[in-house]
Design a protein that fits this description.
about 120 residues, mainly alpha, 2 domains
């Protein structure tokens, strides 16, 4: 539950007391933070601005969004999905894979060190 409450607090910090706000990017970042915390064991903290690897995490969030939109387009094309493969989509997918693989490598190194 602590992981959820941290991200809820980060989300609430972005909400103004009055006025109009676009919630879609906040909910995207909120979901991304919780999902990466659960799946990778460490959140990208896209809703926080005071972390050391903010630029890398922001790049991941942007690439993830581009890749997600591209996959939605490919899904709509169904059997002809391979026709949709613009450079921006391929680059974003590659960056997302590299980011996630770095987390997996870190976990593998951590597990290896525990075994020794």
């Amino acid at each position: 539950m602590k992981q959820f409450s941290e991200h809820v607090d980060n989300l609430l910090e972005h909400l103004p007391e009055d006025g109009v706000i676009d919630l879609q990017p906040l909910f995207f970042n909120f979901t991304l933070d919780i999902t990466t915390a659960l799946l990778l064991g460490q959140s990208v903290h896209s809703l926080k601005s005071d972390i050391s690897d903010k630029a890398e995490n922001t790049a991941f969030a942007e690439n993830f969004n581009i890749a997600q939109k591209g996959l939605a387009r490919r899904f709509r094309l169904a059997p002809w999905h391979f026709f949709y493969s613009p450079p921006e989509f391929r680059r974003a997918c590659s960056q997302v894979h590299q980011f996630v693989e770095s987390y997996i490598e870190d976990l593998n190194l951590h597990d290896k060190n525990l075994d020794e």
